[in-house]
Description:
Layout: E1 10-13, E2 26-31, E3 34-38, H1 44-50, E4 59-63, H2 69-72, H3 75-84, E5 89-93, H4 99-111, E6 120-122, E7 135-141, E8 149-156, E9 159-164, H5 171-179, E10 183-189, H6 203-209, E11 218-221, H7 226-234, E12 238-239
Parallel strand pairs: 3-4, 4-5, 5-6, 9-10, 10-11, 11-12
Antiparallel strand pairs: 1-2, 2-3, 7-8, 8-9
The structure holds zinc ion (2 copies).
One zinc ion is lined by residues 17, 68, 70-71, 165-166, 222.
Amino acid sequence: MPLDGTSILHFLGCGAAFxxxxxxxxxxxxxxxxxxxxxxxxxxxxxxLRGHVFDGVRELNIALSHLHSDHCGSLGSTVxxxxxxxxxxxxxxxxxKEEAYAASVRTLLGFYGVPEDAWRMMVPAGLQPFETVRSLxxxxxxxxxxxxxxxxxxxxxxxxxxxxxxxxxxxQMEAFIASHSRIAAIYMEMxxxxxxxxxxxxxxxxxxxxxxxxxxxTFLMHLASSRCEDLAREAxxxxxxxxxxx
Length: 246
Ligand SMILES: [Zn+2]
Ligand SMILES: [Zn+2]
């Protein structure tokens, strides 16, 4: 049976920073005793435990899109638990040649009191491929101008996956579409309105940038309210649903 590209990523949450009811937006891939985590916001540790996602994990790989706390707020507990309770190997996947970003992640782990020998940094190219996710690539995006922020591109047997939990531009998504003949799924943040100076992406701008035929396989996330879901569906998009909310 061909792999359904929309079932590769499992979601722990799909909320925006101030919508804890939906959990911090984060996704994972679990294969055997290996776990790949995309972002690690405030609710992630609790949902990993509650959903038994951690059970039996021996290798934890974490990719962080940026350091707003709804994307890294439970990184300390997650790394400490994985290392000292699960005795797992913990890798922080870091974009290559982004020393300033790696330094801020290191500082953050230090503030959280995580010993340096509890984890190691690795470029994604060093990751042994998962059956579903063959590779992961960081792409710089424009979200909060005071921070270094990334989107992710994942290559899978079902085609490419683009993932951007926080961004205010469609440029990287458009470049991804142009460079991929097969697209498994697109995961994008959305904001209801176009507010001047906002660091988020209004739905109207996403609609304008995205070919109509790709809307069904474009899943919106980082939702600020239940109205976001209604607007997204009205416009023909799909909406992320977290496993523990469905
Ligand atoms: Zn966010
Ligand atoms: Zn953010």
